[in-house]
Amino acid sequence: MKALLRPGVPRREVWAWAMFDFANSGYTTVVITAVFRAYFVSVVAGNAPWATFSWTLSLSVSYALIMLTAPLIGAWADARASKKKLLWLTTLGCVGATALLYFAAPGALVLAIAALVLSNYFFGTGENIIAAFLPELARPRALGRVSGWGWALGYVGGLVSLGASLAYIGWAQGQGQGAADFVPVAMLITAALFALASLPTLLMLRERATPQPRRTARSAWAQVRHTLSHLRQLPDLKRFLICTVLYQAGIQAVITLAAIYASQVFHFDTQQTILLVLVVNITAAIGAFAFGHLQDRIGHVRAIALTLAGWTVMVLLAWVAPDERMFWVAANLAGLCMGASQSAGRAMVGLLAPPAHQAEFFGLWGLSVKLASIIGPLTYGVTSWVTQGNHRQALLITGSYFVAGLWALRSVKAARGHRAARRFVRAGD
């Protein structure tokens, strides 16, 4: 394993880095996907006609804030070698705001929206920062594997948090408690597990970057403008960021709306939906772990192309599925592709980003993903509205983003992009 890591990087530090994926995945699984979303719509907002819109709008606001600040925060972290400090801040912010959801009682809409926006903002920002440590830990030829280890462990973490929350919910329901009693406690459980599981990362992960005095005098805004004006020196990274927006739009639509599709088209009940989330997390963990090794063997571009082809097949299967049996096949394929493509994208950026600008360029990657998080679900929503609730047609239209991403990927050359990244640093500011 040492041959896969940078000189001086011990195995336990890679484990500590991967544990952050384990820690923060519980937030997305429990809060965004499986538990709090339904509670927000049905209890906090009282199933009002605007309830789902207020949920999606709150998430969109948090994504927009991440888009506006991610490259700036990354530039600031690079200049001051402060990724670790920011990781502490974002972790405490997400844990604290998630715990604040405990007070999201029926009718407490303003508090629930504020806590949701803050928690999701801190989660997304922390996700960018932890990714920027990857190239400091793994050699270029092992970026896929190490990224895959972390992402696979992340899906396990999501299952642990969801399992703990569901165990408590089952017990509470046996005591005659309602959602307004047990869902707030599930938020505390999720926040506590995030805090506990992130301790290895926060205590053991080292900050290897060094402050860059020439750049500290320049404002973060000026640094980002400088970088954007010089992106022509990094054509492969620029193309891959565009590719990321396209295929992530499809992924984010599937992640956000899979439960709705299952409910509307195949009439899944709550238990079936939770089972769907659990099974997809397992297959996603397998996909992330196994595909990370394959990515380093066959190359980053080929690996991502393979996952996008898999996503396209998944959309077609779900579109034509006559019953839930074929849909389950499509869902498991989606899990495999989700774990593989998410991990592969992070590794690809680690290869193409200039070493002295890792946090900044991972901020641009985060901007791309969050932009996709707005575009993809919005495309699905508009299409289902225009087609008067035809979810199959909405899925097919949204799935075209995978084809567009595959088309954009064709001109990306990983080795050429890696060489350009090294020249970008030597060229100076």
Describe the fold and architecture:
The chain has a single domain (8-204, 221-427), classed as Growth Hormone, Chain: A (Up-down Bundle), CATH 1.20.1250. Helix content is 82%, strand content 0%. It contains 17 helices and no strands. The chain has helices at residues 11-34, 36-44, 51-80, 83-100, 109-131, 134-137, 143-174, 179-204, 213-216, 220-229, 235-266, 270-298, 300-320, 324-352, 358-386, 391-409, 414-427. Helix 12 packs across helix 14.
Write the layout of secondary structure elements.
Layout: H1 11-34, H2 36-44, H3 51-80, H4 83-100, H5 109-131, H6 134-137, H7 143-174, H8 179-204, H9 213-216, H10 220-229, H11 235-266, H12 270-298, H13 300-320, H14 324-352, H15 358-386, H16 391-409, H17 414-427
Helix pairs in contact: 1-7, 1-8, 3-5, 3-10, 3-15, 4-5, 4-8, 5-15, 7-8, 7-12, 7-14, 11-14, 11-15, 11-16, 12-13, 12-14, 13-14, 13-16, 15-16
